[in-house]
Amino acid sequence: MDLEPGKPVFLEDTVSQGRSMVGQTVRVTGTLHSFNATLDRAILIDNQYLLVIDTSMLGVIKYYFGQTYQFIGVVTPANPPDEQQLISGDLEDGSKYNLEIVVKARVARDVDGLDMEVYRKSVVVLRAFLDKVQPV
Questions:
Q1: Between vectors from CA 56 to CA 74 and to CA 98, what angle results, nearest 5°?
Q2: Which SS3 state, helix, strand or coil, does residue 61 take?
Q3: Cα(35)–Cα(53) distance, integer angstroms
Q4: DSSP line for 12-59
Q5: What is the rounded distance in angstroms from the CA atom of residue 119 to the CA atom of residue 125?
Q6: Which long-range CB contacts under 8 A does 30-34 form with residues at least 24 apart?
Q7: Which of 59, 48, 2 is nearest to 25 (CA)?
Q8: Using one digit for the tens of pLDDT, what is the confidence trace for 34-84?
Q9: Where are the domains of the chain?
Q10: CATH 2.40.50.140 fits 7-133, yes or no
Q11: Separation CA 134–CA 51 (nearest Å)
């Protein structure tokens, strides 16, 4: 079984495209907002965008709130009523999220200390390069 590499995407891409991304393997990066061990769900946030991560395939990992994490996994459909209970009332006003999808993570890594602005710029440059050498 071949595993696809995770395409670097921003949380806002995933939130705005929603179900059209189902089946894609992605690499998402953001700050850990919360974690529910009972449901194996993490809430990742970047700027005002929020994404639910299914961590059931990762085993036991100690997560630290407020640290930056990167997850690689497949975008899958979610059950919005189940995901709704994860969204706490303490989110900043204007938060944007899409409870119709989750990323079923197969890889997680702590990337705390990553300069997100530099990371964003590098992803934009990488996308431009790949568009030139690998036209769709």
A1: 50
A2: coil
A3: 9
A4: HHHHHHGGGGTT-EEEEEEEEEEEETTTTEEEEEETTEEEEEE-TTS-
A5: 10
A6: 30/68, 30/69, 31/66, 31/67, 31/68, 31/69, 32/63, 32/64, 32/65, 32/66, 32/67, 32/68, 32/69, 33/65, 33/91, 34/65, 34/86, 34/88
A7: 2
A8: 998 888 999 999 988 999 999 999 988 889 999 999 999 999 998 776 666
A9: 7-133
A10: yes
A11: 28
The DSSP letter of residue 6 is P
Counting Cβ atoms within 10 Å, is residue 21 exposed (0-12), middle (13-18) or buried (19+)? buried
Among 30, 107, 23, 19, CA closest to 65? 30
Please tell me the distance from the alpha carbon of residue 103 to that of residue 61, in angstroms, as a whole number: 17
Model pTM?
0.89
Tokens describing residue 47:
């700027």
